[in-house]
Design a protein that fits this description.
The protein is mainly alpha-helical. It contains 23 helices and eight strands. The protein is elongated, with a radius of gyration of 27 Å. The chain starts with a helix and ends in a 9-residue tail after the last strand. It binds iron/sulfur cluster (2 copies). One iron/sulfur cluster (SF4) binds next to helix 18.
């Protein structure tokens, strides 16, 4: 069984990698604007935590996520097989736990501690806050963490690697056409995302599969279900009570004792393989095991959810008062957006000009790592709607390209103290040249100036707020590059009444 489990882990990990890296710009198809080779929503269809939590927070349900019901039903029959056989983040942890054990980082002592309950409390905390419209699943869901870790942390590293001079062209071509899809990846929050991702991995050097055993709320959800599963590991009377199975169970389920917890068992089958008298078997056994959640723990997780929500709410930044809150085209109402976005980073991964960046505190604590447009990094490409195409939850609507071109995310304003024609009476038309709308949202007001006794015509650029969509290309291209003389803020149409 262990061999089959290994094959399954590798197979699902490869499938994850293929889906993840296939979700890049299709460089062979620009017929109707930009298009994607694949999507990442298929990664999340095995994730009932995202399905339930997003539904609770937003009251919306995408049909494709109904697929996760299959995983719920399979867990009710087989047990927590997802964690041991399918989850790509679990496989990463398993790999590093294996390395850690080979390097003798810890004794083989997988004695159960009460800390395994933490993941259940975290699960209740997340679900409880979702009922009040706050979607925290993206910070703790393993699939969201791994997609974000790969997209926001690993891809920028690979893009640096791609730029190495000595790299053979064949490798560069492979990287460009199959993995990167574009040359530059840079994110202001790459370090923070990478730190969080690596920290969870490093914890495996303290305890095998630390994240899965103690913290993962999706593991907690599957654990709750597998408490009632029809098939479980069962110990028969030939058991010698030698305890070797408990020692080798990195899920700390203690299969060789009376306190065996099927909710913790990830069906890794190390215990079955190690038992010298074959006293353990995976068989039909519909006796449910206890999870031992304390009332105090449950109350604490509910109270902390309430306190957390209050803190989040008092620290909420009014979106309409925040000039840098440029949401992606297709994100309409801020409240719905926050309830739907699972902070997976998919939109930022595919944004061709690095315009979409993980937010720091621009959208308040609750908006951490949600996508915001930042014209210092790049601009929103006019005929591109890739963020809407990739967003797995519909937080960014998949707009038709003609609708996307009209979607207003902000308005540009000119700083006359820095704009060259205004400040120095010299002509500059960079912003007007790059403005993509038709007709252009930047126009000129001509006036005559006297310089060294001669008359010159100077064209001063002006923004027509009725036409500006806030794409930020003018800001990005402005030659006054340190602090551009034209900037975009989140107010739509310049605040004009319509
Ligand atoms: S506990 Fe979480 S991260 Fe670990 S395998 Fe299960 S679902 Fe994946
Ligand atoms: S908006 Fe971006 S980060 Fe949020 S769910 Fe959609 S793709 Fe993921």
């Amino acid at each position: 069984m262990k061999r089959f489990r290994l094959i399954s882990q590798i197979t699902f990990f490869v499938i994850f990698i293929l889906i993840f890296f296939n979700a890049i710009i299709d460089l062979n198809d620009f017929s109707g604007g930009f298009s994607l080779k694949g999507g990442i929503k298929y990664i999340f269809i095995v994730d009932p935590l995202i399905t339930i939590n997003t539904f609770l927070a937003s009251h919306r349900f995408e049909l494709i996520y109904g697929f996760s019901i299959i995983f719920i039903l399979l867990t009710l029959v087989l047990g927590r097989f997802f964690c041991g056989w399918v989850c790509p983040f679990g496989t990463i942890h398993h790999f590093f736990s294996f390395i850690a054990s080979k390097l003798n980082f810890y004794k083989k002592d997988n004695k159960q501690t009460n800390f395994y309950r933490l993941k259940y409390y975290l699960l209740f905390f997340i679900l409880f806050t979702a009922i009040f419209g706050i979607n925290l699943s993206g910070y703790f869901d393993p699939l969201s963490i791994v997609v974000k870790g790969f997209g926001i942390f690993l891809l920028p590293i690979l893009s640096l690697f791609y730029k190495l001079e000595f790299l053979p062209d064949s490798i560069k071509d492979f990287l460009f056409y199959n993995i990167l899809g574009r040359e530059d990846y840079y994110y202001g929050q790459a370090f923070a995302v990478g730190f969080f991702f690596l920290l969870l991995i490093v914890l495996n050097f303290y305890k095998s599969r630390f994240w899965c055993v103690y913290l993962c709320p999706l593991g907690g959800l599957y654990g709750l279900l597998s408490k009632y599963s029809l098939f479980k590991i069962r110990r028969d009377d030939s058991c010698l009570n030698c305890g070797i199975c408990n020692k080798y169970c990195i899920a700390q389920a203690e299969p060789g004792s009376e306190s065996f917890k099927s909710s913790e068992c990830m069906l890794l089958f190390d215990c079955v393989d190690r038992c010298s008298v074959r006293a353990l078997d995976y068989t039909f056994y519909n006796k449910s095991s206890k999870i031992d959640l304390t009332r105090r723990g449950m109350v604490s997780s509910s109270v902390s959810a309430l306190v957390g929500m209050s803190l989040i709410n008092v620290s909420l930044i009014k979106p309409e008062k925040n000039p840098s809150l440029l949401r992606p085209p297709g994100a309409e109402n801020e409240k719905d957006f926050l309830a739907l976005c699972i902070r997976c980073g998919g939109c930022m991964k595919v944004c061709p000009e690095n315009f979409l960046q993980p937010a720091f505190l621009q959208a308040g604590i609750i908006g951490y790592w949600t996508p915001i447009g930042n014209p210092s990094f790049g601009y929103c490409v006019y005929n591109c709607n890739l963020c809407g195409q990739i967003c797995p939850t519909g937080a960014i609507k998949n707009l038709a390209i003609e609708d996307k071109k009209r979607f207003v995310i902000g308005t540009a304003f000119i700083d006359k103290n820095r704009c060259l024609p205004y400040a120095y009476n010299v002509n500059c038309m960079v912003c007007e040249e790059h403005c993509p709308t038709s007709p252009k949202a930047i126009f000129f007001y001509e006036h005559t100036v006297l310089k060294n006794g001669k008359e010159y015509i100077v064209k001063n650029p002006m923004v027509n707020p009725e036409l500006c969509i806030g794409c930020g290309i003018c800001t990005y291209k402005c030659p006054v590059s340190d602090m551009p003389a034209i900037y975009v803020t989140s107010i739509k149409k310049g605040g004009l009444l319509t």
